[in-house]
Each structure stands twice: as structure tokens, then as C-alpha cells.
Amino acid sequence: MQELIATVGEGKVVTNPATIDNYRRDRANDPDAGTPIAVVRATSSEDVQAAIRFAASHAIPVVARGAGSGLSGGSSAVDGGIILSLENMRDIIIDPLTRTAVVQPGALNAEVKAAAAEHGLWYPPDPSSFEFCSIGGNVATNAGGLCCVKYGVTADYVLGMKVVLADGRQVQLGGTQVKDVAGLNLTQLFIGSEGTLGVITEATLRLVPAQRPPTTLVATFSSLDDATDAILAVTSTMRPSMLEFMDNYTINAVEDLTRMGLEREAAAMLIVQSDEPAELAAQEIEQIQALCHRYDATDVFHTSDAEEAEAIIVARRMAIPAVEQNGTLLLEDVGVPLPQLGELVRGIDEISQLRDVPIAVIAHAGDGNTHPLLVVDPTDAEQQQRAQRAYGDVMDLAVQLGGTITGEHGVGRLKQPWLVNSIGEDALELNHRIKRALDPQNILNPGAVFAPTDFVANE
Amino acid sequence: MQELIATVGEGKVVTNPATIDNYRRDRANDPDAGTPIAVVRATSSEDVQAAIRFAASHAIPVVARGAGSGLSGGSSAVDGGIILSLENMRDIIIDPLTRTAVVQPGALNAEVKAAAAEHGLWYPPDPSSFEFCSIGGNVATNAGGLCCVKYGVTADYVLGMKVVLADGRQVQLGGTQVKDVAGLNLTQLFIGSEGTLGVITEATLRLVPAQRPPTTLVATFSSLDDATDAILAVTSTMRPSMLEFMDNYTINAVEDLTRMGLEREAAAMLIVQSDEPAELAAQEIEQIQALCHRYDATDVFHTSDAEEAEAIIVARRMAIPAVEQNGTLLLEDVGVPLPQLGELVRGIDEISQLRDVPIAVIAHAGDGNTHPLLVVDPTDAEQQQRAQRAYGDVMDLAVQLGGTITGEHGVGRLKQPWLVNSIGEDALELNHRIKRALDPQNILNPGAVFAPTDFVANE
């Protein structure tokens, strides 16, 4: 420990148990999170390198952590390991000439958006947590969000990065150009690798011109099938810049909290935006409205007023905290091809009844990515067990429907047991080969994405 | 050989030397291409698996090949190896509901575009060779094109793939969804891997709504600096859907061939398109015109007439064959950050004078990707040697300017010696580790991207 303190500096190494405790879990509240021996609060890539070199020489696990907003336990602490916090590395440099941002991992997504906006530019990826999640975590999980249906995910905006490898070396991958095919695409390999291959110390992000003010449409439906049919009709014929879904449980939870006048009887509510130029947006919204009516929407409303629209979006963003009022949440993040969305939503309802666990469903419906929220009474141990089974059932269902166990939150520790079913044994074995090639000691975020035991036999 | 014929079927194995000779080289005309023992013309992924299993069991090199339109020698034959031709695997299935295409590797880019267009959809990536290059090669090189400045590269449109590994197993990677973060992003790792990690037998491609008819602007400049300044002014303030550059040498070569009335005295010509909705396109083109005038354009002209525009684009597409009339070409594919484009173009001119080799420059200027074309007299051995030096000089210059040795053609065999300078030793070593992990025998396209000797010591 003295060795570590000597290298990175006393002020940056936390060994006080009370402070350490704040760094043991992300927002997934992993009950199995371990206790690290120290937290290193890096202020430079040299600190990151020093911490990883120390960890490598002692074969100690290193779990990198940004803002701690992860939802899959990807940054749960590991017993005897180091938490490497990047929260204090948050420089942002915007280059308007090349429309790029060079960003340290601790910078918040919202800070990058704001810095870009000062130059009339836009960093599109918008996880619901954008106000308090950091870019390092966004890149490490390939975070999604609401605008992805039209604008893609984090990976689509990362041109290059600096990453510290398992032996402490820092390498530069990619650059500032859209086109660069010199060697394997390692930039993309590290995106979404959840800290298992290296620690990202800088990302070069692509920016685009500011988004046009959108027009927002809200539609309610008295049947789930109508709602999912309308979603498919919209996504297969138009290009909304947002297409969000809330089910009856969620609508009521949000209404309980906000009293904003949502239709409590509705089976589902869709929030759709078009950010095309005014005339085209009007056409697009009109067509979407017609499709909603064709699928028997009970109420359709649209607005170009920014404040009115923002109130609606805030309702959507409040969905998780609103549902959380009713119990402890187990968050899912399953995705399916859009023609299977109806079957997924109906199947989740069946699982909820079978396991006797309320499941609220919110979804980035336009890209098939859903967030079923299992609502568990923290004092009911038996229900917790049923919820664990339901949690697996939902993932199994998504895989059966040709989908994925995680669209944007990452596998982390909570979904790791289901990874093999999601991608198959051969693809998992390929993952293992790459993990072994890049982190032969398995010190980088062990237990996340891959089972700790996956690497024992081969060492 | 009998074993191979027995497995994949006699009709699919070519051993006739005259026919084999047609498969030894791609469009790079690699003088060092070897002579394979056979060409396997696969008609299914089972054929691909059988060929690779055969190769693996005998430790024989396998070079996959699509339409043979590669420009870096990525599919040059290897002595004693097998050429695995995918030209007969060309199924295309469009799913308009999910706006995806499931495509076999031999399907031509133009065929995918046409199949998508039947459903009002668009597959954007548009290498200049789109009429005769195949999707497998596009994915294997992460091919670019003209529209990338606004619409991104091949990688941005690949959601999933089937790939046959070095041991003959076929794995499915990714799926049909934009959001999927289950495990490492192996789909993206295989994109641009130039056949060194596996052979792609199917790709799932994302399609988007049909492009609006563009407005096209042509501007000529009497100085290179003015032209590159105008490019930077346009790309840093607008979002053209195309921004192409031709230098004086190229303009004259095209004019020699077409007699279409290009301005022979111009130092450079820009071709710019906007595909925004009519009113916005008119505004955008007007602004671009104003910027061109600000940088002293000698002539600016624009049209919304499709035929007139097509004639201009054809001129751009004919640039390489036109320059080729003047000698044998050595094609470069260097890219730089846009603020360095002027320095690159001036530096290339200096290299041309220093080495006494004509170098024509065409560029996808909007994304900083240039194609300097070294024009060599095939009967002048001394000039050929000077051209080889100039070829390296241009890549060295791009790297010095913070750019890449290859933006979209791939490293192949021709640029392999320069890869280490482009990405650095540490990144190259990471590449090697992944290559070894996935192809421990180094049978997949040995000598492409990486030096054959890179893997000898470790076996």
C-alpha cells in the first residue's frame, strides 16, 4: 500500500473504510459487491498507469469507475482489489474546426453536450442519466439513450481513444478521422468492453451540428398490441428522432409522483419526436398521428412548444425514480427485433403474473430496447427469490425472440450468468480468447461480463 | 487435394493453372502475388467451413476474395495456399420491417443498393467501385466512399455477421438491432480485419430511408490553398453529403478522356452536394457558393438537374481510369485531420517534384481522405524505384500530420511495412495479440496487414 501511495501520491489514495464504502457499488446496488483495499482517485493518465502497474505487479484486481451510475454492477468493487476512480479527470476540449471533442473519462455526458453547444455543435448520445453519467462509462458500456433510434449509440461517435492496458502501457487508438482502417479496429473493440480490456483515459468524440428543435407527439392506447403495432408501423416507414414507450404501471407511477394528468387507464403511452425541418416535421408528425389513429389510439396530442415538450420528456426521464417509489428495482435492458416487440411485452406480462412480481415496462421502443423494471418489496424474501427467477425469465424470453440480454447498460456482474445464452458458446469462447490475450492475469474488472472462473483453468 | 475436392465438390475446386492465374491478384496488381494450389469457389458457408478446416488441418494459407476489386493487395494469392472465392455467394434478403438486409459476401454493393431501393430504402456506403465491388470485401476493409462525409462508413451499417473462424467453426456475431452490448463488440472487430481473423459468410446491414435528390455544386480554384481553405470552411460549418476534390493533373486527365469542358487551368476542382430538403439544400448550396467565392473560386456552378449532376459525378468516378491512361498507377489512400489537408496536398506536390514522379490527387476531401495516384512509366525501371520511395514518403507525411496511411482501402500487402509507423509499436503489438488469439496458425491471409515474420517467433 505504501508503494501505491508513494507512486500516485497520498492525497489520491483512499484507505479510510467509510470513504471506501461509497465506492463499492454503482446504481445497480449489487448485493455481492466486495470490499476493496483502496480507492485511487486518479487525476491524470499517469496516475491510472501507476495504479495499474501496481495492480499488475501484485496481481490485484482493478475496477475502473466513473460517475458510478452503472446499472449492471459493472463497477462493483472486488474484495482485495482497487477501485480506480476517474471522477476527477474531466477535461473537455472542443475543436470546432474538426468538430471533435477530446474528453477525459470523468467528464459528465451533460458537460460534453454543454461544451459542444457553446460552439453550435451537438454530442447526440443521451442516456436517461445524461446529467449524472460520465463519458468514460458511456464509452465503456457503449451507452445508448433516447435519440439512438435516429442517431445511433456511443460507438457511432467515438473516433479514437487513449487506453491504459493491463500492463500499464498507454496506447493511442484511432484518431480524429471518420475514415481510418490502419490495422484492426481496436477503438471499437474497447468500446463496450466494460473495463475488462483496459481503462480508457481519453476519448475523441465526433460532434455534429446542433439538433433542430423537435416536434413532440404523445399517444395513448387502450391495448398493448395496438401500441406495439403502431410502433412497428412508425419505425418501418419513418425516422423519428425519439420513440419512447411507457406501460400502464409506469404511467401510474409517474402520475402518482407528478400529478401531470396522464391517462391512468391507458395500456401504453408513446412519446415520439421528429426533428426534421419544420415543414417536413409537420408532415412526419401528421403521418405518425394517422398511424396512431389507425391502431386505435385513444388520445393523440402534439406540440412544437419547447417547454411543453420538455415536461413530457421529463415525465419519461422520471419513470425509473417514479417506479422506484413502489419498491426496490431490478432493472432489465433487453432488446428484440421490432417485429417481436409485441411478443416481448406480452411475454413480460405473463412472466410478471407467473412469478407474481410487478414488472413495469419502459422502452426506447423505436430501437427495440426495453427496460422492464421488476418492483420488489425489500422486506419480502420470498418475492425477492421469485423476482430473481423472473429476471432470468425476461432475458431468456428476449434471447428466444432473437434479441439481446442487454441493449445499452452492459452485462456487468448482474447479467453475466446469462451471457452465454445470449451470444452462444462459440462467440463467448472468442470473447475469452481476446480477454486472455489482453489481460492474461485477469486483473481488469474480474467478474464483470465474464465469470471469474472462466479464466482459472487456463492460467 | 483429393481430400479438398471430396469435401467441397469437384465443380467448386479449380486447379487448372490458367484459371487459377485469374485469381492471383486484385486490382492492386501486386507484383509479388504468389501462386495458390487451388481456388475454391464456395457456394455456401458449409463450403467455406470445409475449405478452412482443410487448410487448418494442413496449415495451408487461406486468402478470401470477393470481387477482386481491392486496391491494397489484401487478396493477393500466397504460394501454396488456397484462394477462397466468395463470388458465387450473393443472396440478398431485404426486410423492410426492420430495415435490414441479410447479404452474402459475394453480392455486389450495387446489387444491395438496388435491392434496398425496391423497398424505398438506401444502403449508403458508396465506394467509387460500388458497381463492381462486393459486400464481403466492403466489410472486410471497412470500405468508405463519397457519402461518408455525412453518412459514415461501412462499419456504421453492419449490425451483425456470420464469420467462419480459423478452425472452421462458424459463429454468429451481433444481430439486427442498433443496440446490443452483450459481450465484446466482435462484429466491429471483424469489420476491417481484411480476412486475417475469419471469413465473413453473411452480413446483416442497416438500411435507411431513400436519400433525397441532391443539389450539386462545382467550384474551380486557381490555387490549391484556396481550395483546401474552402473545404475546411465548408466542413466546419455545414454538412454536405459529398465533398470531392480533383487536382489539376486529374482534371486534365479526365478532360483528355471525356472532352466535357473542364477548366484545364484550374489548380483544383470541388464537387459538393447537399441532400437536405429542397429549401434547406438551396440555402446550404448558397452558403457553400459564398464560401467558395470568399476563397477566390474562379468559377462556381450548381444544378438540381439529376442528369447534369450525374455527368459531374461520373467525371469524378472516371478519375482513376482517366489518370491510368498516362501510366501504371500506385494508389495511395492517406487521410489527415481536415486542418492539415492543405499541408498534405502541398507536401505531396513537393514529393512529386523531389522524386520526379507525377502524382495526381483526388480526394474525398470532406472527410480528409485523399487518393494520391502515382503515375509510373512501366518501361522506366528507375522511375519505378523513385515511385516506391515517393509512395512511402506520402504515407510518412500523412502520419507526420496526425493522419493515417489508409482511410478506406485497407493495409493489405502493399502498405503493411508502413503500419507500424501509422499506429505505433504498442498498438501494433495489441493487433498481434488479437491475431494470435484468433488465428494461432496464421493461416488466414498471412502477409496481409501484418508481416509474415511477425508471427514466426511465437509459434
From TrEMBL, chains A, B:
Cofactors, names only: FAD
UniProt keyword terms in alphabetical order: FAD, Flavoprotein, Oxidoreductase
Pfam families: FAD-oxidase_C, FAD_binding_4
Domain FAD-binding PCMH-type: 32-210
Entries under InterPro entries matching the protein: FAD-bd_oxidored_4_C, FAD-bd_PCMH, FAD-bd_PCMH-like_sf, FAD-bd_PCMH_sub2, FAD-linked_Oxase-like_C, FAD-linked_OxidoTrans_Type4, Oxid_FAD_bind_N, Vanillyl_alc_oxidase_C-sub2
Alphabetized GO MF terms: FAD binding; oxidoreductase activity
Name of the protein described by the UniProt record: FAD-linked oxidase
The organism's place on the tree of life at top rank: Bacteria
Stored Gene3D superfamilies: 3.30.465.10, 3.30.70.2740, Vanillyl-alcohol Oxidase, Chain A, domain 4
Protein family according to the UniProt entry: Belongs to the FAD-binding oxidoreductase/transferase type 4 family.
